Amino acid sequence: MTNAYAKSRIRKIVRRFGLIPLRSDPIASFYRKSAIVRVLTGSGIYAMKPFFRSNLLRSGTIDQIKTTADHVQLLMNNGFNSMPKWLASNSGKLWTLDQGRPFYLTTWINGRSMENQEDFEKLGRVLASLHTSSRSLPIKGHFYDHIRLWQNRDRLFRKRMAKANQSNRWTRRWYKRLGESCTQFSDRSWTELKSPEIVDLLEKEMIRPALIHSDITSQNVIIANDGQLFIIDWDRMKLGSIYVDVATALMNTTRFNPVFIHSLLKGYEELCPLDRTERRMISSLYRFPREAWSTVQFPSRPRSHNILDIMEKTWLLRLKAMDLLDEWVNQQKEE
């Protein structure tokens, strides 16, 4: 599939949702030149988005879009208003199929990125609302085990580091400078995750899971012009661990800023207070060097080089953020 969409194809897809496009513009993301298409119609501006299956799941593309659409419908029916509204197509579904690719349409959100303490408190409250409200919904599906996936990626990272002499000079230097520290942090986290309290917490979560976004990044959070916070790009939503969702949101949005980290956690705990074991769980997950793990499958790609370079430049900030979360854990007494 090409990165651009013909005007005729965009018109055909959008009309299936009861709209007539007047103008359309492709919007790029970090990964794709045409990740989304902004469509101007007589009744407003909308986002047309292609749906791509997750390779982390065994199910096919159609099964995945059906599951995602079911989850979206449940959230919309139960008053969760922090995601753009998905439109129903002429078939009654929240998506349509064109040339073998599912597409969906949502309202377009004009706004800005997060930039202050209040914004991060809002994000924390929205995440807590998603997690707490979805636990009471009649959701079908399997619990997605991010932690098992991370175990596999950690093993691959260690194998790659053991063969660092076969890498280029820059990568060898990076592994020599930071690789061992990454494995030490991982070892500490894996030990903590094996503690009886956290094992029990994980088992309970699998019995009563919640919906998680799975891809909270700065690019996927918008502060609308009226001040409301919206999370976009719900393609990877699934039943999973709320602690994974919080830990990855902290890593992917706060830029290791202590004020932003505290603000996100403060907002979250306003609606969903966390005991010491839960805090320890989040701190342990945050410590994992997930970015480094993501580079080992394609170490020669420029993007992998960029990720490792960013990790090196922000290393001291990361260490301070880990210490901050350890302090946050110790502030909460054992119940």
From TrEMBL:
InterPro entries (UniProt xref): Aminoglycoside_PTrfase, CotS-like, Kinase-like_dom_sf, Tyr_kinase_AS
One annotated GO molecular function: protein kinase activity
Keyword Transferase: yes
Pfam families: APH (PF01636)
Superkingdom, natural source: Bacteria
Species in which this protein is naturally found: Paenibacillus ginsengarvi
GO CC terms, sorted: endospore-forming forespore
Coiled-coil ranges (or none): none
PROSITE patterns, sorted: PROTEIN_KINASE_TYR (PS00109)
Keywords associated with the record: Transferase
The protein, known as: Aminoglycoside phosphotransferase family protein
Ranges of residues in domain Aminoglycoside phosphotransferase: 82-274
